[in-house]
Design brief:
This protein is of the alpha+beta class and 214 residues long. The protein folds into two domains: 40 residues, no CATH class; 126 residues, GTP cyclohydrolase I, C-terminal domain/NADPH-dependent 7-cyano-7-deazaguanine reductase, N-terminal domain (GTP Cyclohydrolase I, domain 2, 2-Layer Sandwich). It has eight helices and eight strands, in the order βαααββββαβαβαβαα. Helix 1 packs across helix 2 and helix 4 packs antiparallel against helix 5.
């Protein structure tokens, strides 16, 4: 199977590229902001148990929000032209993901199901999971992230169609506000054949819920 590496032209930053171009504060400024929040919560940021908390929080933020430094289109830049006559959907089910709600900066955790119907090229399956990871590691709404994943795959691979479904539990609803735990939010996005052909869309939905058949 021959791999094609597409040299993508320089592009303006968009919702499916890297994060927005902003001037970031220094690490020291970010840690000072955490100290302010600790004090606002009602505790002493210089007491022994909290003294190193700002450093730990910023290190965690580096991990939680690493998606701002990555371009999802670049993740899909290496494709394979030889598909040996394969003419059916490619699907990854149950991709574990966690992101942070942009309204409260509280996690939402769940699974993504991603499928595409290739035309003349495919991509390594791990790259699909990586695309989910890039968008999950940003401040998000679930609706936006679902659309971003579908748009990226559609733009990079130009398949016959893309289907994305995310089901997640939002901690901003579970531990605050209405305090309703274990309520799953489900979002979907379809393009091409999955949007135009109800049978293909139904097939995708069935495959997301099939269990114990392998």
């Amino acid at each position: 199977m021959d791999a094609t590496v597409k040299k993508l032209p320089a592009r303006p930053q968009t919702s499916i590229g890297r994060g927005p171009a902003i001037t970031r504060p220094s690490r020291e400024e970010a840690e000072e902001a955490v100290r302010t929040l600790i004090a606002y919560a009602g505790d002493d940021p210089v007491r022994e148990g909290l003294r190193d908390t700002p450093r730990r929080v910023i290190s965690a933020y580096d991990e939680f929000f690493s998606g701002y430094d990555e371009c999802a289109l670049d993740v899909l830049s290496r494709t394979f032209d030889e598909v040996a006559g394969y003419d059916d959907i490619v699907m990854l089910r149950d991709i574990e993901m966690h992101s942070h709600c942009e309204h409260h900066m509280i996690p939402f955790i769940g699974k993504a199901h991603v499928a595409y119907f290739p035309t003349d090229r495919v991509v390594g399956i791990s790259k699909l999971a990586r695309v989910v990871e890039v968008f999950a590691r940003r401040l998000q709404t679930q609706e936006t992230m679902t659309a971003q994943i579908a748009e990226t795959i559609d733009k990079a691979l130009k398949p016959k169609g893309v289907a994305v479904m995310i089901e997640a539990v939002h901690q901003c609803m579970s531990i605050r506000g209405v305090k309703k735990p274990d309520v799953a939010t489900i979002t979907t996005q379809f393009t091409g054949i999955f949007k135009e052909d109800p049978a293909q869309q139904a097939r995708f939905m069935m495959l997301t819920t099939e269990r114990g058949r392998l």
